[in-house]
């Protein structure tokens, strides 16, 4: 049944009108739910809503959605002026497009599916001063409304190019990303209903980043949830544009500038994660794991896997076909880096497919494994299942004595790694040790002293690692932490001075060296560093002098005075002679240096 618009409404009108503001201190969304028989005004609009029957779930439609409703419109005296109940046909329309009275548009956005209410609309939100058939001007009217269902409508790019109608909502909140592999089913038709594309019955699987069919398909997929079914209306620029598409796979061609209707279902997707952040180790999740915890660094993990080359050659199996699974500690270089890093991201029971480039595999060397030889610079594929893991205890899970013991152990592990030249991993061990002995918590005085000593020792050792790795800013930061506690710590001053010298901050380096010698005047290493600093300062001064000399030479050349010819009388010859202005300037007070020349001389 068609309902006269009367004083209609647009989405922009409703969203921008002051008279729809909520009352001070009240938000419609946060108001307590209405009880059956209860009536309430919606904000300060004058629209009243009385609940006749409660709905289900908690979602409500939004402007732009397609709603299907039954309603009966009456005056306050009970006179009926419109009804969908008379012929039993509900009305479907899009909210916010002025197809019904403004107040009805606004009221329906507060309703749940199956809800039945009575709306009382003031004239401004009804048919106003104009009225309509059966409604006198400036009448207060009522609508009894039942919200049967609605379809969420989304303008994906806000340009009308891809309109998505959600026919069936999906599961959970996860949506696929560009890296993920998706399985979809779809049917593409022209406006006249001609089917122009459809995958096999089982659907089609592809990586989102690789695209499929037309751009609209992938653009819509990344907005969908697993199991979601939608209808798309696609304009030519997101379909096949001016070129159209030739007939393929038994389907007819798509004419140029065709609008497409696509029924699309996201059957499932396999998340793909860039484990290392540089696109060199990818993890595709084949089976979700349990819970939310992942193995993380330092965990004792048990995994099974089959490892292959790109050509399918299996070179290693663990925990497969009756074999023993592999047990190792993550972040301890007990396996190749790619497998190590990926395992630290896995949940218990998770099964994943890893793609590992040579940098995180066996590198440029030949690797002899159990079942085959891995050639140099090979890409690797591991199908891995996380059977179990035991996470390393976090600091908050330990008492003070256990924290001190754990920190001491990490420090010793770091020392061994440092001696072996593995400065990167040594630095991480020192960082972990410091985590265990932070200042948080209640400790005895003797424990506090021991923790402070451990922190300072690990910061100093970490600074030594940073120097070895040419991370000079990192070394400066760690030494500064030590000096915040012990302002004359010679090691911290010495190492920070080294870092300052490497960053050409010679003044700061000189300050730290002087301070270190005040604390330990006979320290041989500091004296040697002071000597090196002196050499650097001499070289720096020479460079500066050369730089300034060249700079002023260029300035003198570039700013030469335009020559003006002057006539100077030479009395002895009785005739005039041309002399340049430059010559004349040189004649005047030649012994007085200019201010700029003095500055250069002083430098």
From TrEMBL:
Stretches assigned to coiled coil: none
EC number: 5.2.1.8
Residues annotated as domain PPIase FKBP-type: 64-151, 179-270, 298-390
Record-linked Gene3D superfamilies: 3.10.50.40, Tetratricopeptide repeat domain
Biased composition (Acidic residues): 15-29
Annotated region (Disordered), positions in chain: 1-40, 568-603
Stretches forming TPR repeats: 490-523
Reactions the enzyme catalyzes: [protein]-peptidylproline (omega=180) = [protein]-peptidylproline (omega=0)
Keywords associated with the record: Isomerase, Repeat, Rotamase, TPR repeat
Basic and acidic residues bias: start-end ranges: 568-578, 594-603
SUPFAM superfamilies the UniProt entry points to: FKBP-like, TPR-like
Protein name: peptidylprolyl isomerase
